[in-house]
Specification:
By secondary structure, the protein is α/β, with parallel strands linked by helices. The strands form six sheets. The protein has a seven-stranded mixed β-barrel with strand order 21-22-23-24-27-26-25, surrounded by four helices. Strands 7-6-3-4-5-20 form a six-stranded mixed sheet, covered by helices on one side. It binds alpha-methylisocitric acid and iron/sulfur cluster.
Length: 644
Amino acid sequence: MGKNIVEKILAGHLVCGTLAPGEEIGLRIDQTLTQDATGTMAYLQFEAMNVPRVRTELSVSYIDHNTIQIGFENADDHRYLMSVAQKFGIVLSRAGNGICHQVHLERFGQPGKTLIGSDSHTPTCGALGMIAIGAGGLDVAQAMAGEPFYLACPSVVKILLEGRLRPWVSAKDIILKVLEIFSTKGNVGTVFEYGGQGAATLSVPERATITNMGAECGVTTSVFPSDEMTRRFLRLQDREAHFVPLSADADAAYARVVTIDLSRIEPLAAKPHSPDNIAAVRSLTGIPVQQVCLGSCTNSSYKDLVTVARILKGRIAHSDVSFILAPGSRQVLDNLARDGYLADLIASGARLMENACGFCIGNSQSPSSGAVSLRTSNRNFLGRSGTLDADIYLVSPETAAAAVITGRFTDPRDLEMDYPDVPAPERLVIDDRLILRPEDTGRTVEIYRGPNIGQPPVNTPLPDTLAGPVTIKVGDKITTDHIIPAGARMKYRSNIPKYAEFVFENVDAAFARRALANKEAGRHNIIVAGLSYGQGSSREHAAICPMYLGVRAVLAKSLERIHAANLINFGILPLTFVDEKDYDALDAGDELEIAGLRTAVAESDILTVANRTKGASFALRLSLSARQKEMILAGGALNVRRQE
Ligand code: MIC
Ligand code: SF4
């Protein structure tokens, strides 16, 4: 039996376990990436591991998220990251060089390699034919220390692309179609492997839009073959030496095959407040638009931005529309400038922002109250933009450009012009001078620590009796943006006691105070949730901050992969209902108790919970590997390391 692409790369990196879907496997990791908002915590944890230098082939630290720098905190974190990089042999991409995923794709990703990153959109580099996976900062720190990365061996779904995109339809519309088919839930433990004649027509940046937003489906990662398109992209990046061909064997097996005919896709949009709330742009025609944001790690390539520049050339943004432009990387910006397109964009009224996450993470450009904002980014979760009552729609660059002109939702096919087909440039300006390579001089590097940087807190070992209230009960599809908001709050990423004040801020602003009071009274806090708890980002703060507030267990109908792993890393029990009806029977404030917990965790996969308030009991499932059980019993990964 032949192998698919995923099996080939996993087999070449397998350290332990067997390649059977669902089994825990350990992988050798070739490359890591971090960004500043998750990186500071990751490097604090790495420092605690007492490893003199990173043990990967390549580790890159990006500064791209917290670049607004209101107050001293972010700038202090940047200095910390720069000193850590120098000391431990990490490459550092300075603020201004671009968004981690875009830059990693351009300058570092390599077919056939493994990459883990402390950001959920790390799968972007799957566009180059590598296995690139998002993870919590602690997992990335362990990989930098040379340890395997553990995960459940995924099952592989083939997405067979046929046909060719029609004019005005682009890669964003493909991934929105995929989201329409698969939704944002129920895909844990799978990988999307793309193939077919249609896939061969897509350039690497187009593939990257698709692999990037596969994260919204909750898959472990997405991957494309490494083919002539890949070679062409790497050649343009002056990196042809990194090219290796990679494709699935003709008789490779898949858990499922889904075929999408590219020629039948039309311009699509994700409506508020979920990336899988898909509608045809045509059905939204006429809705007035107040803001258009172009950029983010999803749609920031040279082709994306040149396409918009050519659509807008000689026109001016509609008087109702604030038009925001944040190029994904300095390379893209340099080349737009060289070729004159930047001038066209500025002439059309674009408000040029830094090459950074910016609007996408909600730290700037929050829309006005009740506004409609069209964005080429990947997430439209409630409140993420910084304006709770704004309506955010995710669209392609073409649809975004059409709204810039008309001030309304407009199917770009209705613009009376020819589609500007943008070929890849013959040559690119490549300037890596904002990338700092660590020198191995043996010189002692002093680590800079600003006053905002605290030590990561550690949990206590698992108690034998868990007793406390359901401190909050939430519904389905609660994202990590709901659990711990980013945006304006993100500057406290290195200061857990402060950041923890904002847990569930947009869901139940009194949660943090209530939880802390329970903790101080010696009670455990319990979160009850519906389906797909912990969607979205990889931020381990969605586990660390609740842990700091005394949360000891999450009872959910289902949990998303990265968040569940983060909970375990910090000693919080990720439990699922055996019978989903028990979710309905629970209310916030119910007093729950699990007795004999340590023995039950060690010996069984089923725990029995007593509801003291209602005089009932019910069963919960704890699906953990032996390694994860050890972590839970010890109160998290840091305690296990300490014991060792
Ligand atoms: C996001 O897009 O939500 C982020 C901000 O990039 C996060 C990481 C973070 O919270 O720092 C992610 O995707 O993992
Ligand atoms: Fe940055 Fe947005 Fe991409 Fe996250 S999704 S890495 S915030 S651009």
